[in-house]
User: What shape does this take?
Amino acid sequence: MEHEGFAWASFIPFLKHLPPHVSNAIIVSIVLIVIVIIAYRQIKQQGDDPVPSAHFTCRNLMELIVEFISNLIKETMGPRGPEFMLLIGTLALFILFNNLSGLIPGFLPATDSTNTTFACSITVFVMTHFYGFREHGVKYLKHFVFINPSWPWPANVIISIIMCPIELIGHFARPLSLGLRLFGNMTGDHKATAIFFLLVPFLVPIPIMFLGLFVCFVQAFVFILLSMVYFSGAIAHEEH
Assistant: This one.
């Protein structure tokens, strides 16, 4: 059975029976892998020559993307940022390319499904606490309570009892807000673009597509920026 509005999947036999967001995610992942392989081959061909060549467009494109993400991570997370380059970079490219795929007629982007957006946000949630426990051990649990050494003992206990459930709710709300924000914005953007194409298929939708292009980049940027903030908070040490 073909998925309505997902014409591209009908050309690939093993994809047309999958849900649209899964099919699109697989296609985008394959495209990303191919781009990376081509860029790697071009790097090997050019060797140690530091001067970019116009003939190595894939390499130049990937270098620009990687350099931008690397600088963003360093500016946001500080000297510990490069440790998260692989995770943040993967999320950034996966989300961005899936967002952009929604501008292609017949493509239903994976980020139009909560299954995809929540998968990304839950990954961030799990890895946040993984890095937190790896960095602090059991002491990481102090992030969920409020302890002020200058306060008397009973006050600390009472405030901790009050703050602990509030902190837990705040942490569990993170994947919900990340997933819903990405899903809502991308779904609204792609629906608006599709409506304009149906109403006026010539010229008029072009400005809307440029606006959609902007939204695709902004939403990917917001997702990874919030992810970096969560990671930074998990590995941060209290100043004494």
Notes: The chain is about 70% helix and 0% strand. Residues 91 and 224 are 7 Å apart (CA to CA). Residues 7-235 form one domain. Residues 1-5 have pLDDT under 50 and may be disordered.
